[in-house]
Amino acid sequence: MFSKILIANRGEIACRVAATARRLGVKTVAVYSDADASAKHVAACDEAVHIGGSAPRESYLQWERIIAAAQATGAQAIHPGYGFLSENEAFADACAKAGLVFIGPPSSAIEAMGLKAESKRLMEKAGVPLVPGYHGTDQDPALLQREADRIGYPALIKASAGGGGKGMRVVEKSEDFAAALASCQREARNSFGSDAVLIEKYVQRPRHIEIQVFGDSHGQCVYLFERDCSVQRRHQKVLEEAPAPGMTPELRQRMGEAAVAAAKAVNYVGAGTVEFIVEQPDGYDHPETMRFYFMEMNTRLQVEHPVTEAITGQDLVEWQLRVAGGEPLPLQQHELRMQGHAIEARICAENPDNQFLPATGTLRVYRKPAHSAFERSDVRFDDGVREGDTISPFYDSMVAKLIVHGDTREQALARLDAALAETRIVGLATNVQFLRHVVASDSFARARLDTALIARESEVLFKQDRVGEPTAVAAAVAQTLIAEAALAGNDPFSRRDGFRSHGVTTRRFDFDVAGERLQASLTYGRDGLQLAYGEVQGPLHFAPLPDDRFDLRFADRRDTVQTWVVGETVHVFTARGATSLVEIDLLAHAGEGEGESGRLTAPMPGKVVSFAVKAGDAVKKGQALAVMEAMKMEHTIAAPADGTVAELMYAPGDQVAEGAELLKLATA
Length: 668
Ligand code: ADP
Ligand code: ADP
Ligand code: MG
Hints:
It is a single chain. By secondary structure, the protein is α+β, with helices and mostly antiparallel strands. It contains 18 helices and 39 strands. The chain folds into five domains: about 5-105, Rossmann fold, CATH 3.40.50; about 130-200, Dna Ligase, domain 1 (2-Layer Sandwich), CATH 3.30.1490.20; about 205-455, 2-Layer Sandwich (D-amino Acid Aminotransferase, Chain A, domain 1); about 470-585, Glycoprotein, Type 4 Pilin, CATH 3.30.700.30; about 595-665, CATH 2.40.50.100. Helix 4 packs antiparallel against helix 5 and helix 12 packs antiparallel against helix 13 (about 430-440). One adenosine-5'-diphosphate binds near residues 82 and 236.
């Protein structure tokens, strides 16, 4: 075994590799860019070397610097992770020249599988089934058109050098082919530096089933069963599971053996994945008529390797290190077993309701579900970030991977849903709620899997991020009351009518949820608080729970609620879901037009009830400053911006005229 390795990657995969190395007593060296100077992966390693600017081409793709860092720190081997340099044969060769072990396959295998068209020619020779198509070297557009016409429509044009779901065009009919080809070639040239394409029959409602393979330098090769990665958006994986639902032992063996044949054809060593597209002509319940075709081989550890680890109980990074060090495979084919069912969800910074547009920002709140160490646990959480970290535009939008394991698929599903509900992220858009909708969708729950699942279930997947509005509104109201009481130095939970410090009976709340204006009114009655929201009216109860949670009862529902306020937005989380409500402060907004002086004026005649601040206090935007009563309603006046309270112009109990300045705020 090596005594020290360098990890030429970042984020969750760098942390993942470091965890196994640590367990095996192998020292680790991290590399980092400017943007990653204080990243989690740097802290996860024993040493770290700065390798350049934030953009990948200035750092994580700078292989001379990475090799120099390995030599300078005395590392014996380099683990490339996935992405970046992991499938770069020139880098693998350069490592060897520098006397370093590249923890991956031989460069010849990377090269053979690097281009989709060439790898298909190789696979054809090895007898691995291929999707009907054209993968020749002649790229004459007229020939490509004829080939597509021969294959039939819909057809798929793929960039031979493509990856990550990029460089693909579905063509519906012959007349559209020329334009689609030109656009695919343009993207391929820009993204992959080569415009060579291949053409495939576009399989209808296919499944993506891939086989994990492992080879060693003694000529052994095994398969560690399959993963179903059919749930995709934009040809990119969203959920992955193992084993594939409906798989039969007979089909598993045939696919496994085909994958091993593919790997052996290129003298494969290390971890690899052979991806198959699977046609299910008779639908989901007929595995006996399912046909599988080779798509591509990824010559690296895959993002979704944890589901294989969960069902086999093996640590694939440990296997990689052992094999790269020259040891034989830890287990032979007949010793490998599967147990239970595992599912992985990729948690990404993106907006599912806006075409999955990647999002950037700060993880202001980042709470993970209860989980344990990465081997064989029921809930595993792999990430490369911490609360307060930034998801920058430089790298992948994947924030974390949540992996669950259960005895059955049903149990794994239930664990996944519960763990997603406990995953709480505030500060940027994520797909966490979207993932919950996918998991709950009829197609996924019943394992009706194919790559069109998200499109088919779109009705129930998108724009559904509401906890159940009355609960969300009640939670936001409760949150406001708790915050105000805390500011005023009262215990918000001490008395049922703890908020009723004066004669006011009704108070109005306005919220904006996804552009929609919601209004609620709260009455301080003799029996406690009554909330009215639309048609829903009833008592509002809340009581504290540990960890900043509270128990909320409203409208025949009882929820454990957790809220975070960022600016004017209240983020509400319950086990049922999450919602963000923007609190509209009528008075604060009324005062906003008055210029930079921060004049805060009464929009109507009324009485000053209380001040939550005194002169000299520093206040944050959105913080409650004063409470005013007007027209039998109570209104909170919030700071329109960060600043310092310069002067209070009135005392509690004072009557004020419309337009009267209540306090002066010096804003920065
Ligand atoms: P997997 O196949 O392991 O599920 P992906 O195909 O999504 O993973 O790719 C894994 C990582 O590698 C992602 O960060 C992706 O952006 C990157 N990647 C994959 N192929 C390429 C490529 N040809 N060029 C650049 N990045 C790639
Ligand atoms: P990448 O290198 O980007 O991962 P792949 O060739 O693995 O490219 O294809 C990515 C995805 O595109 C597959 O998982 C599948 O959903 C879809 N796909 C690829 N080939 C076909 C095909 N012939 N018919 C239908 N869908 C396909
Ligand atoms: Mg692929």
